[in-house]
Amino acid sequence: MNKPLRRIAIFCGLLILALLIRDNYLQYVKADDLADDTENRRVNIERYSTPRGNIIVDGKAITGSVESKSGDYKYKRTWTNGPMWAPVTGYSSQAFGANQLEKLEDGILTGTDDRLFFRNTLDMITGKEQEGGSVVTTLNGAAQKAAYEGLGDKKGAVAAIDPATGKILALVSTPSYDPSKFAGNSDKDAEAWNAVQKKNNPDDPMLNRALREVYPPGSTFKVVTAAAALENGEVSGIDDATKTPDPYQLPETTGDPLTNQHGECENATLKYALMVSCNTVFAKMADNVGNEKMIEQAEKFGFNNPELDTPVRAAESIYPEDNAPQNAMDGIGQASNRATPLQMAMVASAIANDGKLMKPYMVDQLTSNLDPIATTDPEELSQAVSAETAQKLQEMMEAVVNDPQGTGSSARIDGATVGGKTGTAQHGLNNSEKPYAWFISYAKLSDGSSPVAVAVVVEDGAANRDDISGGGLAGPIARDVMKAVIDSKK
Amino acid sequence: MSSTSNTSTHHTSTIGSIGAPSRRNTELALLVFAVVIPVFAYANVGLAMNDEVPAGLLSYGLGLGLLAGVGHLAVRKFAPYADPLLLPLATLLNGLGLVAIWRLDQSKRLSNYAEAAPRQLLYSAMGVALLAIVLIFLKDHRVLQRYTYISMAGALFLLLLPLVPGLGADVYGAKIWIKIPGLGTLQPGEFAKIALAVFFAGYLMVKRDALALASRRFMGLYLPRGRDLGPILVVWVMSILILIFETDLGTSLLFFGMFVIMLYVATERTSWIVFGLLMSAVGAVGVASFEPHIQTRVQAWLDPMREYTLSREGVQDGIVHSEQAMQALWAFGSGGTLGTGLGQGNSDLIGFAANSDFILATFGEELGLAGVMAILLLYGLIIERGIRTSLAARDPFGKLLAVGLSGAFGLQVFVVAGGVMGLIPLTGMTLPFVAYGGSSVIANWALIGILLRISDTARRPAPAPAPNPDAEMTQVVRP
């Protein structure tokens, strides 16, 4: 009987071996996948087991942590003025996960990031509770507030950038939501969460319009068209008359010709055309430049970049390959080109920064106990236009604001030079829906430096379509944001 | 014993080991470790969870020490040549199990467990008492041979108990429990395991020649005669019935597997294994085709995440969906190589049965890969010591009984550990000695008692030849 016994012994050994192999597979090979699985509640338990690190604006925390009463999670996230800051911070909920900075910098905020290893080890030795690091943002509290209050209960977005560095100064989207309302995991939190979901709320408050929504840029895009015309030598000077008929028959079409709403646009100069926002001049200019060169110029300003990370990824702004009539309409921002508010702020910032486009970013530093562990350095994305062209564009945009005939007079600021461009983007089938009011601008101080460029879009301009409502609705908001930045520099 | 094995057994056969050391002192030294290690683990849990050495440390340490001491004294007195490893191994596992159960008692999520550890200690004491009783009253395991058919009747009775209306309890789909008013629940299957091993050993010892020799050769296999197929068919049908009426895949597999192992050892015919595998495959697939409980278990094994989601969403489709399988996998994964440390994991997320069927996941999370491998190796050692006992046994009944019990023990460890780790479909079974549950602990201590008895008989020095009374009487008659 001994021979089968030996075989049974081997068989039982193999059973144990199979268990050992399976265990190695589970706890070694698959260990990290299982441990970091977002459905694995330990991930959240860990995340909320210590007070979460804070997100800092102007040296003050805009987030906080409170001890929560609910069983599994020790701490709960709080926000000061959640709706205003939500487009920057995102949410961090025990029940519904996290997004934006709260998600992207989770390692630092939770304190599990490798860069905090030294601090954590020290804390372990000294017996201190592990604490998350802080995320210091580039944002400007006053500008953010001006933008948020300026939009009020209108639907829209504001993005403001420091042209010289690319620092994002304001990032607002309305209507917004208060992430504090669903930071926990109670039924009340679930109710608040459901209330702001798009399927239950047509206003889609969770949508970050400043970064994640693309709009037809309307007349603000004429700045890009002007840049392309100047860079490609289609016009010799901004004060030379262009050969433009009024009305203008779009290339390869026979229908109604393109008209203007204001001004004397026939053979107008580039400067005058931008000032009163001539459609005919810029549509013809875009046609003269051609689709290929228009795409090239738009891309230099940051269009067609699917991976623009601030570090929160911005939606891709688009200037597509188009046929000639569409391309001409793209030149006045009324065809298939689309831009995020951030993208249009980048356009204004590149012009204000003598043609150099800086990469927009909103995380300045990651710190542990306010000791910096990583600092973001400003990064040049491209030379969008030559310094010379930039000067010309500035002159034109300043005329839009300062000239009595200009459309952007609402953005004037005492003690600073403002350059801007209005826009009213029509959309919907046969322009049936309410237009979007746009305003992009920058401000320059007497020393020639430019501290801020901004883009404002108001979605439901109670707008009189004939009016260049960008100047009326969006302009004052842009002015307040720029003024807030200038005042905070003093 | 067959002639072929004689050549290869001479080095393990203990027949010739006259004057072999009893190894009782080795056992005692090992027992010290088996008590001290869990005591440290217990202190560790208290320090990690409440920042203090637990108040119950002394009574716990004394309790476990007392159990080990009683077990040791009983062995020293009544089975002095018994295997020295079995008792320390079982004590260590029992002690670690108590630590894990106590640790889960502390969990706030599982408030209903609050008193499990003291009860488990009581069960363990009853188990060790049963071990002592076995050693005291079962002077020779061959006595059990007399109770072959009584054992069968007893085993069938025990297995059928959960089906008695009013007595059985359906726990998450498996009907393997009975409720005894005032005493709690009992898993009669654990005791039936031992009774069945006795029956199979007694029955096969008698029938093995007929089963082994009367066969026809066909395609390299020895086919048994039709009438000899009878017993295996009966056991097979019984397993299938368990599967259908108690919907318990584990018990069914355990009994059938045990029978096939013993049949193979008794007859040395590989054909029985082939038949056994075929029949269990047919049985399992056949039953699974119409039994939703089994289907759910298989689905949960193939896609635990889906079961988890269904359970979370509270899908009502007449089947109990459970998130446990996925929770157990997460517990193992979160433990990683070295674990979180005792008392610092979240294995209590598993919820129901975290301290019984799923207790290995707690070790997985808190002691990590290293801890689980150590525990699996402890089980491996028990199994192999059991089979070694079988090899050393001098009588066929003892051999069969020892291999049956060890094989069943091994299958049980494989079924439950493999189930919890997602290697095979999950089935409700307790991890011997470690999992919470009176029936399991008591029955397994009795199992160890029987193995100790067999090994004592096997290793005991052969009695000196009795003086031959004829020697003196025979006279050489000189002319």
Automatic annotation (TrEMBL), chain A:
GO biological process: cell wall organization
GO cellular component: plasma membrane
Domain Penicillin binding protein A dimerisation stretches: 52-135
GO function term, MF aspect, one: penicillin binding
SUPFAM superfamilies, sorted: beta-lactamase/transpeptidase-like
Domain of life: Bacteria
Domain spans labelled Penicillin-binding protein transpeptidase: 156-483
InterPro entries reported for this sequence: Beta-lactam/transpept, Beta-lactam/transpept-like, PBPA_dimer, PCN-bd_Tpept
Location of region: Disordered: 237-261
Protein name: Penicillin-binding protein 2
UniProt organism field: Streptomyces cupreus
TrEMBL record, chain B:
Record membrane topology: Multi-pass membrane protein
Transmembrane annotation, as ranges: 28-45, 57-75, 82-101, 121-138, 150-169, 189-206, 227-245, 251-267, 272-290, 358-379, 400-427, 433-452
Keywords attached to this entry: Cell shape, Membrane, Transmembrane, Transmembrane helix
GO CC field: cell division site; plasma membrane
InterPro entries on file: FtsW/RodA
UniProt entry tagged with the keyword Transcription regulation: no
Cellular localisation: Membrane
Top-level taxon of origin: Bacteria
Pfam families recorded: FTSW_RODA_SPOVE
GO biological process: cell division; regulation of cell shape
GO molecular function: lipid-linked peptidoglycan transporter activity
The name this protein goes by in its record: FtsW/RodA/SpoVE family cell cycle protein
Classification lineage: Bacteria, Bacillati, Actinomycetota, Actinomycetes, Kitasatosporales
